[in-house]
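Pinned message: reference record for N-acetyltransferase
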Amino acid sequence: MDVRAADVDIPFISLSDGVVTLRPWSRDDAGFMAEAFADPAIRRYNGAHDRLGRPAPPMSIEDAAAIIDEFASSWRALVAAEPPTGVAFAITDAASGGLVGCCGVDDWSNADVAQFGYWIGPSARGRGYATRAVVLLTRWLFELGAARAFLTVEADNEASAAVARRAGFVHEGTMRAHSVWQGERIDVMWFAALPLEWPMREPDEPA
Ligand SMILES: CC(C)(COP(=O)(O)OP(=O)(O)OC[C@H]1O[C@@H](n2cnc3c(N)ncnc32)[C@H](O)[C@@H]1OP(=O)(O)O)[C@@H](O)C(=O)NCCC(=O)NCCS
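Predicted structure (C-alpha cells):
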C-alpha cells in the first residue's frame, strides 16, 4: 500500500499488484465516470433505480463530480478514524495510468462486515482488471480489520459472479426476489470471504 500526503485534503492511498492500480478518484475523472454510466450494464447493475427498478436518468459530468466529492468526504471521514463506508477507488491500468473502472465500499457495519461493489468500463472488460481490483480491495479491507467482506450479485449477472469466484469468494446462497428490475423481481446471489479462509490471503497477512 502506498500512502502519500494528500495533494488536496484527502489521503492518497494507492494499492497495486503491478498490473492494476487502485487510487482515489479525482474531479478530473468525472467525464470518464459519466461516460461509463451511459453503459446499459453499469446503469442496470450499479446505477440508482426507483422502486419499480427503473434506472435513474443518465449521469451528467456534474452528477459524476458530485459523486466524486462524496467519495472525498468518505476518505476524510476514514482519516478521522471513522469506518470506510463510501470510500471508492478508481481502477487504473498500472502501466498506462488509464482509468478502467471503479470499486468501493458500500457499507461497513458495527460488526466489522464490509460490503463492496465494482464496475469496469465496457472497453476494458475481459482483461482481468475487475478480479485483480477485488483481490486488492479485499486485502485492504482485511488489513483495516474487516471480519467478513461480501458482495451481492443479481442472479443473471454471470460476468460479476465469475469475478467473485475468481477472487476467492464463496457463493453462500441466493436471496429470492430480493431486487427489482423494470418491474420484475430478481434473485440476488450473496458472495463472501472471511480473512482466515480466503485463498488469496498472503501468508504473512494479519487475520
Ligand atoms: C462485472 C464486470 C466488472 C466483470 O468485468 P470483467 O472484465 O469480465 O472481469 P475481469 O476483469 O475479472 O476479467 C475477466 C476476464 O479476463 C480474463 N483474464 C485475463 N487475465 C486475468 C487475470 N489475471 N485474472 C482474472 N481474469 C483474467 C478472464 O479469463 C476473463 O475472460 P473471459 O470473460 O473470456 O472468461 C463487468 O462486466 C461490468 O462492469 N459489468 C457491468 C457492471 C456490473 O455488473 N458490476 C457488478 C455489479 S455486482
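Pinned by admin. Summary line: The two ends are 17 Å apart (CA to CA).
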